[in-house]
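Data deposition worksheet. Section B asks for the primary sequence of the deposited chain exactly as it was used as input, without tags or linkers unless they were present during the calculation. Section C holds the resulting structure in token form. Section D is free text for depositor observations; keep each observation to a single sentence. Incomplete worksheets are returned to the depositor.
Section A, Depositor: J.P.
Section B:
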Amino acid sequence: MKQQTIVTIVLVLLVVITLVQALQLRGLQVKVAEGKVSVGSSSGTTAPLAGSSSGGSAPALPSNLENLPTMVGGC
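Section C:
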């Protein structure tokens, strides 16, 4: 096969995959809007939204996040 044919086939395949994913995302957005799917953690606890404070104390963290370092990489 010619190189141009292979590149064309790969490009068409990528476009088809993109379209399928866009349709799946749209379907998921509709389900969330209708309330058929809830957005959140599976543990049953909900985290407060960023910027909304109700008291001044920091919310309790899940046990897997309690022992993280305060700064990761960077200068």
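Section D:
The chain has a mean pLDDT of 78.
The longest helix spans residues 3-34.
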